[in-house]
Amino acid sequence: MPPDTRAVMRPRCRAALNAAVELHPVVVVCAPAGFGKTTLLAQWAPTAPATVAWASLDPFDDDPGRLLRAVGDAVARAHPATADDLVAAGRAMPRDPGVLLDTLRDVLGALGESAVVVLDDVHRISSAGARHAVAALVRTPGPRFVLAGRHVPDLALGPGRIEGAVADVGVRTLSLTVRETSLLVSAWGPAPSPGAVADLWRVTGGWPAAVRAAWGAGLLHRGHSQRPLRHEDVPIADYVREEVLGALSPELDGFVRRACVGRVVDPVLAEAVVPGGAALFEECVARGLLTSRDDGAGPVGAPSWHELLAVHVRATVHRTQPRTVQAVHQALARHLAGTDPAAAVRHAADGRAPALAAEVLAGRWPELLTRGQLVATERWCVTAGAGAGAQTASVVARAVRAQAAPEDGDAVAAAVVRVLRTTAPSPTGDGAAVRAEPDDIVLGYLSARAALYASDVPAAGIPGERCGPPSSIEHVVDALVDAAEGAAVRGWPVLALACRAEHALALARVGRIAQARSRARGVLTDGVALGWSRSPVTAAAHLAAGLVAYWCDEPAAARHELTAAIDSGGSRPGLVARAACVLLHVCLAEGDPAGVAGALAVLKGTRATDRGGSPPGVSRAYLEAVALVARGAARDALSLADPADGVFSSPAGSSWRSDVHRRVGDHEAGLAVLGPEEVDPSWHVADRVAVHAARALLQVDVAQAHRSLERALDEAAPDGLVRPLRDRAAALRPLLTGHLGRGSSHEPLVTRLLVAEHGAPEPRPSAWALTERERQVLACLPSRMTVEEIGASLFVSANTVKTHLRAVYRKLDVSTRRDAVHVAVRRGLL
To answer: What's the mean pLDDT when you consider all of the chain?
Structure first.
């Protein structure tokens, strides 16, 4: 077939087809009508790597005998030397059609890679006999086959695809590029402007038939568009109806119409729209009616309708089948009510079902509130004419709209709490008030969330946080558990996730470290699965995970989680301020001035609500004082310590002031700041560790100092909460070294603190007398491993370990294992 002289040459497509033919025995070229499949094959055939035998099929070729004769004639024309054999086989075919098939396979097998067979319009094959004949033919080893059509019938190509023997050239390859669009339009008239070409390509999606239709309709007058083009402007509706929909079976045609109306892009929704829709959806993907998304509007690889096609199908259905449109939207509204209530209400409104919209809104408003979609969804309900059945949702939506700063999630939450507490409940016979269960769940969640960030919340181990007197917030933990369970039972997954995130933070604040870490990880994992990762819904879990990592001296993990909390909690100023405050301390501990500056910038940009213009729940004076100490200005830092500021009188603030007094040489003032020796057990464990460690550094009596240090170790060891000790490791080093010699139940923790301290002395020259194996044995001594266990870990015998131990003791001038560890730490060997 000669190429169309008016067509634009597409070297890119020819190269893709050529590469596919060279590497694969079977190549499938599949796309809807108008994508230039035949034109591409005609351009490619003269440059093909082998002689092309071309057979264009028509409806009459659905008979297997006629089909085989058409292929035989094409092969005979391309390879005249085979004509006699094929003619003889054709004469025998009425008596035995298999003779021609066998002859064709023999002839093509003999030709091998020198033969390429093109079957154009292969979608015209529908009978079982014809499909079996082609399936047998393409299994012939040696030659190459190109099957082109609007869809490919069932030719048993599955095994070949698995083995890599079948390649596909589809819509993504056949669609015009911007440059090809410009060349095509220029071939028909004046060269268009770049802006007009880009606009045309955006609207048509590179569909060649659509580009031709747009040009033919004069949408590019003298190469320029009169105004920004819309999909509706391209006059391709009749082509879509006749060439695209008209080529489908009645069942598939009905599905495409419904799916385009509902913008169905996954098999689950397809099944909700039409029984058996999942299989029909997959058939649309196979036909190229849906393509993999790569436009940035959704997940890469997700199927998406060709937008121009979908627009014209929707317009046709709206014009000719209005009842179908309503039925589709109502079916989708019922299906999506549980997973995407906002979309469900919009579909109910589009389906002219106000009662259904009100039903979804009334039953799902707590979930919509948590997702931040309540106001917009309530407006859709009003648009749909739903006046009754969603009173609470409407009241809450009005309260949210009334906020001066709707982006401030904390203020919105407070407004919702006020509304729910003042809403007049329905009276019972005895005059008692009964509140609806959804109200209770939302009120419990928001009230507990507010309590976690209140100015009178008890100390929670967060440096710089304003807090009230020691008390218990266990009731908050229990309230969030109840709210999460209630939301899960009601089928509100995002609200349940938000409750669990706050629950993880509450556990961290009450000092249940291991539980907080586990719960936060679970929330973050489920957040990814539900599509709500790094959102305000999961921000509290990021903060909880960051706090635990900070307390446990895991700076990289802490920085990652705290940064995520700041990024995702933009609508939660109290949460963001606390996360930034902790991140500032992480950066200070790592000696990262750029990170400190970044954390301060976040705090500065946070909406100020506390007295003195401080960020919500955080003391600006404390942060400035901490920064002064980091710069070596300890006395200036003490001048900022305002006793009226609750941060400086909190356990964390008291231990910090004590350390600063010690730095300036005023030990008595440092002890006075700490108060009585017995700490309040209601304090957070991080604060208890800090106070004990600060006291240990100020004790004059050595025995008392070691007792205070042991108490700090007792508090820190169970959960590995060592940050308060690491902050003081340099000052504690002599005491820690002596502590090993006195005996401690926490020798591994003491050794870890000593080894981790960056200010450790350089190894003494005598340390070089230790051999490599002796160093390995020495490294095992701080553990509780036996001689046999040390030998097993080093793959040597117990006697060999004892020999190395004797050498270590001799070189370090010690006689016991504990003394060896003590001297090794002092010399910098551990």
So the answer is: 84
